[in-house]
Amino acid sequence: MSRYIRERYKGFQSYTPGEQPKEMEYIKLNTNESPFPPAPGVCRRLKEADMERLRLYPDPTGRRLKAMLADRFRVEPENVFLANGSDDILNFAMMAFNDDEDTLLFPDISYSFYEVIANLHGVNFRKVPLQEDMTIDYRDYCRDDCNVIIPNPNAPTGIALSLEVIEEIVKANPNHVVLIDEAYVDFGAESAVPLTKKYDNILISQTFSKSRSFAGGRLGFAIGNQELIRDLITLQYSTNPYSVNTLSLILGSAAMEEEAYYRKNAEIIQENRKYTAETLTSMGFEVLPSKANFVFARRPGMDGDKLYRKLKEKGVLVRHFTTERIQDYVRITIGTKEQMDVLFEKLREILQEE
Ligand SMILES: *Cc1c(COP(=O)(O)O)cnc(C)c1O
Known about the structure:
Largest sheet: 7 strands, mixed
Low-confidence stretches: none
Structural class: alpha/beta
CATH topology of the largest domain: Aspartate Aminotransferase, domain 2
Number of strands: 12
Bound molecules: pyridoxal-5'-phosphate
CATH architecture of the largest domain: 3-Layer(aba) Sandwich
Helix content: 25-40%
Distance between the termini: 42 Å
CATH class of the largest domain: Alpha Beta
Number of domains: 2
Strand order of the largest sheet: 2-8-7-6-5-3-4
Radius of gyration: 20 Å
Order of helices and strands: EHHEHEHEEHEEEHHHEEHEEH
């Protein structure tokens, strides 16, 4: 760090993104991207896009895409917020809703970005331990003295909460904002978007990155009560009013016309997830019950870091976390069946070498 950096950022720990290797020879099961390309209609729209338009700033309101999302989720455009990936939503929500004296709650085993972004904005937070079986006890969040962020399904466990339980949490916190991060909701969990019509304190964030094969396009959206959405817009317009670029707006709209394609892909991922969980279990792994496009697994007696490194040597990238409670685990993104078969083949080799 330079000697000019502000005192408060000295020694600041930023988020560590998963590896994005240059060589494509890896089977990449480490950052929960989709193994499928964007829909044909999206690719066509890119080819036909009028590059002349890049001369102009994008529509800061993202009117067309917002209208399509509103339609799809049966809300009004005023209930929709567009952002440069859903990480951006987390950033604005962190800034918007946490006063100096407030505390934010999120699970101890969860998306590690929450902690980074809370620290960035000097937000007090408390990590609520998951239960022994890695599930969330919703009662820990029913106190109405803290704001709440919960990913549903949770990452990296993949375990989902039911809509009823989410509603209990929202109901129990009438004076606090409950943000449900639904980055993985399209792979089998229930969305809490309908609750946004009934409660003014729930904010949902979703992304085009995972189920819509668009991680490189950086497009996320939030749904909630108009006033919450307006708060997010205020902060976004004070940070970067053109957060979402023209091409992502165009291609995001094209993606909204291809729901059937993405739904089919999400179904394939769910089938492959079942196949993966069964195969790993038959090989002696413990696999948490996932509703996401990844599984979190460990093999008793085998070190998670070692497993990660051996798989990498053999050309398969998975994600390992050094956090104490989950050191034994690896998180494996669900890819195509062919990719998963290569993973199993390499795992069998590793087990034989033991
Ligand atoms: C991937 C992920 C995100 C971020 O998605 P982007 O829209 O690509 O920024 C948010 N939350 C969780 C839990 C994720 O895993």
